[in-house]
């Protein structure tokens, strides 16, 4: 049975106006297209739309180093010459260019993810959507793979104030390396990434033998896939892993990164998923009935991304929408078929045999069996949110059945619980290296 969820959706009207630079595959404009489709399909009438909070440097240094965030605030196209050393140190330039308004862009997409986390903590919604977020490659000390600030890690740190176990699921075609690395040593967060692996595909990590370390051993799950995977084999693999994750981990909150570069025809990707196949995973997660933060991510064929996330918004709302794209100011992007579910061009053969996929799922399940069932954390008082302006107590009484119980709320994670000691981070990396060799 499907229950209508209380869905909030974040939209900052400026977030689609940033430019990574001519020829760069990451185009924030895809967000404007997506939002236009959402409006023209009338989906805004079925959910609460908010202009999100903007993250400040204090929010960002909950994960990132002070020096890196200070640099992001100061660097701009006009002064880039004076930062030569820092550009190398923080990995800016190249894939992660310095563009006009870079810090504002980071503060918008990060603020929206954080706002979603706060509202889930307050139980003022069941599902929070931020298509501008999901920048999963950003590292504590540097930018990486078009990502500067890791909004996902920052949102999860906020969720850990109220949720004992957070599950992170990543269906971007690239490995969710930044999030995995951040939580590699803890059992409070399980990261599960489905991605293309091998033949030097970016970022090169995400082998099935990367399983976490120390307290986090077995709390990292990687599902390496080969090119050309289609809807049926992808969903079968996804479900095979996630149903076991649910049984063994019993998360109290889920963060889902919906990178759309796993769609067929992506400019950088090589999978063969349709909107429906990609959306099937989103629907499956939604129907697990756990508080859910839904984020965007990669996606480099602009029309595909906007169609995909619009369709997924409709799935999260349980609001069927027509296959015919409604007339809108970007209509020409959807020529010639003007269809939400265009036929996909199967240029790629599926290199994933049934046996291979079964073996990958089997390996993941065997690791999950090694978990002590659902680790618990000490239950104490719930801390106040640090976003003081979001006072939502009045709304908290509604629909208690679909929300977490107060007693499930653990004490706040101590500030920077996982990041106080830089050595921890380094140890995580070392362990990962060891586990590969
Ligand atoms: Zn990606």
Name some characteristics of this structure.
12 helices; chromatin regulator; binds zinc ion; Histone deacetylase; 437 residues; HDAC_I/II; 8-stranded parallel sheet; disordered C terminus; alpha/beta; globular
Q: Briefly, what is this?
A:
With 437 residues, the chain is an alpha/beta fold. The chain is 33% helix and 9% strand.
Structure description:
This protein has twelve helices and eight strands. It has helices at residues 29-40, 57-60, 66-74, 84-89, 102-121, 151-159, 177-182, 231-249, 275-286, 302-317, 354-369, 422-436; strands at residues 7-10, 48-50, 127-130, 166-170, 189-196, 220-225, 253-257, 292-295. It has an eight-stranded parallel β-sheet, with helices on both faces. Strand 1, helix 1 (29-40) and strand 2 form a beta-alpha-beta unit. The N and C termini lie far apart (47 Å). Residues 386-437 have low confidence and may be disordered. The structure holds zinc ion (ZN). The site of zinc ion (ZN) has 7 residues, from loops. This is Histone deacetylase.
């Amino acid at each position: 049975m499907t229950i209508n969820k209380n869905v909030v959706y974040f939209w900052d009207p400026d977030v689609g106006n940033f430019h990574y630079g001519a020829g760069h595959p990451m185009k924030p404009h895809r967000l404007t297209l997506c939002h236009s489709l959402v409006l023209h399909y009338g989906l805004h009438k079925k959910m609460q739309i908010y202009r999100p909070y903007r993250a400040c440097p204090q929010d960002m240094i909950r994960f990132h180093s002070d020096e890196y965030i200070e640099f992001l605030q100061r660097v701009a196209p006009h002064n880039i010459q004076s930062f030569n050393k820092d550009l190398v140190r923080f990995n800016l330039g190249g894939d992660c260019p310095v563009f006009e308004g870079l810090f504002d862009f980071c503060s918008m997409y990060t603020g929206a993810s954080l706002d979603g986390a706060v509202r889930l903590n307050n139980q003022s919604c069941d599902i929070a959507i931020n298509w501008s977020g999901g920048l999963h490659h950003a590292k504590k000390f540097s930018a990486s793979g078009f990502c500067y600030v890791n909004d996902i890690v920052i949102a999860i740190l906020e969720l850990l104030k109220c949720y004992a176990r957070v599950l992170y699921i990543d269906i971007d075609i690239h490995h969710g390396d930044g999030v995995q690395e951040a939580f590699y040593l803890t059992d409070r967060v399980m990261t599960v990434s489905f991605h293309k692996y091998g033949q030097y595909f970016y970022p090169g990590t995400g082998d099935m033998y990367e399983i976490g370390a120390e307290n986090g051993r077995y709390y990292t799950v990687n599902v390496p896939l080969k090119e050309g995977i289609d809807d049926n084999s992808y969903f079968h693999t996804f479900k095979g892993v996630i149903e076991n994750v649910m049984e063994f981990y019993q998360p109290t909150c889920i963060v889902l990164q919906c990178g759309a570069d796993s769609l067929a025809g992506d400019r950088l990707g090589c999978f063969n998923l349709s909107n429906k196949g990609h959306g099937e995973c989103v629907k499956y997660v939604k129907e697990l009935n756990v508080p859910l933060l839904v984020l965007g991510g990669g996606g480099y064929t602009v029309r595909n991304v906007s169609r995909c996330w619009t369709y997924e918004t409709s799935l999260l709302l349980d609001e069927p929408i027509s296959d015919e794209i409604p007339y809108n100011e970007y209509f020409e992007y959807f020529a010639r078929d003007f269809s939400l579910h265009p036929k996909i061009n199967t240029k790629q053969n599926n290199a994933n045999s049934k046996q291979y996929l079964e073996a990958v799922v089997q390996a993941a399940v065997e690791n999950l069996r090694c978990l002590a069932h659902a680790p618990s954390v000490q239950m104490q008082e719930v801390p106040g949110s640090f976003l003081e302006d979001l006072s939502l107590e009045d709304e908290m009484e509604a629909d208690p059945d679909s929300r977490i119980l107060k007693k499930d709320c653990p004490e706040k994670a101590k500030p920077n619980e996982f990041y106080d000691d830089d050595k921890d981070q380094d140890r995580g990396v070392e362990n990962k290296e060891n586990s590969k060799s």
